[in-house]
Amino acid sequence: MISADVWKLLKSLSLLVFLSFVFGFSCKKAESSDSGITVTNPVFTGYLPDTGQTISYTNTKGEDSDFDFHAPSYKDNGDGTVTDNNTGLMWQKTDGGEMTFENAAPYCKSLTTGGHNDWRLPNSHELFSINVFDNVNPALNTVYFTKTVAEYWWTSDPRADLSTNIWVTNAGGGIGAHPKAETISAGGTKKFHVRAVRTAMALTLPAIHFKDNGDGTITDNYTGLIWQKIQNANILTWEDALVYASNLTLAGKSDWRVPNIREIQSLNDEKLVLPSFNKIFFPNIQSGNYWSSTSQVNTPTRAWDINVDYGIVSYNDKTIRENVMLVRGGGN
User: Domains plus CATH for the chain?
Assistant: First the structure.
């Protein structure tokens, strides 16, 4: 019989495997094999962090603040670096300042901070993982990350259909692809900064992202979340989406909910457009925007959403009708 301690360890290792794979593909070398994919320095080694939203904006059950899966947690290492206790990623505490996209990756590669010289430019999922949604301008925990004049931060990901546009997070909390030329150093008027990241683990991981459970649900093996395969054909207001989720029973489960913005953005694949979600596993994905349960902290009559044509995270008035895809799980 497996002891409780051993079972706990196996469960943790299993979670480590599929979560570390989530963010590791796009920026590090990977080799395919029959047994899986070997990823050097996978970039996500723990849990998908919660959004950090703790304030309630409605009496309707199911908003972001009603759930707290892996609250944001950091450690200031006292050497110019910050470790994310959920993801295991180590971050540059104070960003490297404004620069062109072409200079961002070489800057990270040449950086020596905290006694480490294996810094790199983060991919979009990594950089989005440190956004917190009870804060704005910047949407970061400024107890740990130094506030600068940055309006945007570069990622390593170009837009799939337009390589002159690069995915960036913004100080308001969103993420989208912007032209390289918008930053000051490239002749533009905006402040695009760079924040380096590092990790030092290597794992051999299974290459299966999604699993069709055959019961109208899809398991994301990267995050452990279980998703509604066929979404509601009706577009709903934000409040109606929360009610719809609380009333749904699917695959024998009734704990379905509207995903928070971090969760639904985790489905985005920056290598895809029109849609930017996997249509093999989500066959009726609709063009346009999908609600999250996360309110916009500075204008709580709005909620965050994602446009699945390209994957842009933005927001809209809660009275607008949008698509809805439900999720369950997240606390394991």
Answer: 4-57+70-203 (no CATH), 209-328 (3.10.100)
